Amino acid sequence: MERAEKIIEVENRSKEEIIEENEYLKAENRKLVEENEKIRDIFRIAIVEFEKRNKEIETLKEVVEKAYLRINALLEENEKLRERLGEEISKVKLLNKIVFGKKSEKQRQQEECSKQDKRRGGVVGHKGSGRKIPDGLPVREEIIDIPEQDRYCPNCGLPYEEIGTEEVSSEVCVEKVYYVKKIKRKKYRKTCKCSGQIITAPVGIKIIPKGKFSLDFWVDVLVNKYKNHLPIERQISEMKEYGLGISAGSIFGGLQKIYFVYLKPLYEEMGRSLREFNHWHADESGWHLFIKIDNKENYNWFIWAYATKDIVFFVLHPTRSAKVPLKSLFDIEPEEIKVLQKNDVNPENKKMLSVDKFSAYKVLERSGFVELSYCWAHQRREFIDAKIKNPDTACWADEWIERIGNLYHINNQRIKYNSDDVLFKEYDIKLREEISGIYALINMEYDNHRQNTIMKSMREHWKGLTLFVDNPEIPMDNNLVERMIRPITLGRKNYWGNHSFWAGELTVGMLSIIQTCKIHNISPRAYLTYYLTECTKKGNCPSENELEDFLPHKLNEDMKIKLRKCS
């Protein structure tokens, strides 16, 4: 009995202990669950924070990448500016060398020191002393007098006696005026008893019948716009400052009449004369013409430029297709070229065209009309671009730039002499050796894609790049026409473009006249005055047979000299 009670007691205590232990474990489990939830909350917060940080990192990566691209762009721009600066410095140095000759550093230092101590002006007693006023200007005298009250002796009051004048100084002045010229016709009657009427001087012929403005006025407007690139609106504003009020409509109306009656026939004759040459330079540049074609606005037109040693000619067209040079240089329409075969072109009559690598010109070559001479200046730029865009090719590009410079030097020395001269032959041999060396290099394979691309392009255009070797009269580059085309950029900057087709034609016509005059050192103002005066005398534009003699490049030498003196 006692044993049974003990067993029951033990069992009872065990149950209590078990229950107590179970309660303890339950409490511990709840603590663990709570801690686990806290850990999960911390983990969730950590994940959110991680994702937030990850997004921030991605954003920073984008910012860094953009900054890197911007830095690279700025570096490229900086290199281009450095290159341009280097070229300009070289030009300045060359000009200084040409103008002033070679000077040692010591000489320059001495001159700088002497300049600091030297008085301004020429040495007294030496020929040409002082700063001279240009010859040929009209002279007007200005007398400076003493006031009336100061012409009496302060002691006795008796007047001073005038004994002459004293020339003190001279100065160049400018006076721009618009004035009205009243035209009066003289009349005569007989003093004899013979029958007859009163005679009157003939009526003066005006450039525009019944027009209010003189020939000089219109020449001034044309020169200011197309040579000095001054828009009509600015000219009108300037005219108002000098007391002349005139509307834009009156200006444009007058220019339109002058263009169609006098300038368009001259421009067309220049186009016909252009085709007489055997070698041209060609290039094209964008131009704005604010008109509609087939009810569609097409602002982006092109001005094509053609230049020879004697004439510059511009053409306005809405496209950059091959039909433009075909029409301009050969007077052939695109439909006609399909009929013509290569064999139809006489090889002896084949002409040459200096260009860049633009595809439109290659159509002419494939048709057999011309041989293309490609520009080494453009080829040089390809190496400069490679140097800027691919720094790892810089050394290679510099070698090629130097090599092309040497090629220019040898050829420039060669063309100084006649083909039968010994020195010509010496430089000709050097040139051909240099060309052979270059040809061997362009047939090599390179690891860099950019290098292989340039070499491939040179191989494909090799015939045109070396055309000058057998034809010394052909320049190595297309710089002639590129110089002639610069006014287009200035015009586009100052007055954007034209708002009518006739105004666009007037633009290319005037540019053709002005740039052709520039080649022959003729004053555009003097030439236009001469040509329009002759037209006014005739009462119309010269006939087609007469127009040729009025072309700037076909004027006789005496007239060219006269028009140069007027500049």
Characterise the protein shown here.
The chain has 567 residues and is α/β, with parallel strands linked by helices. The protein has a domain at 283-483. It has 20 helices and 10 strands. The chain has helices at 2-100, 105-117, 215-226, 232-241, 248-274, 323-330, 334-339, 359-366, 376-389, 394-414, 422-442, 449-460, 462-465, 467-470, 479-484, 486-495, 501-519, 524-538, 544-547, 557-565, and strands spanning 187-188, 199-200, 279-289, 292-293, 296-297, 300-307, 312-317, 351-355, 370-374, 497-498. The strands form 3 sheets. Strands 3, 6, 7, 8, 9 and 10 form a 6-stranded mixed sheet that branches. Strands 1-2 form a two-stranded antiparallel sheet. A two-stranded antiparallel ribbon has the order 4-5. α3 (215-226) runs antiparallel to α18, α9 (376-389) runs antiparallel to α12 (449-460) and α10 packs antiparallel against α11 (422-442). The longest helix is centred in the first third of the chain and has 99 residues, at 2-100. The radius of gyration is 42 Å and the shape is extended.
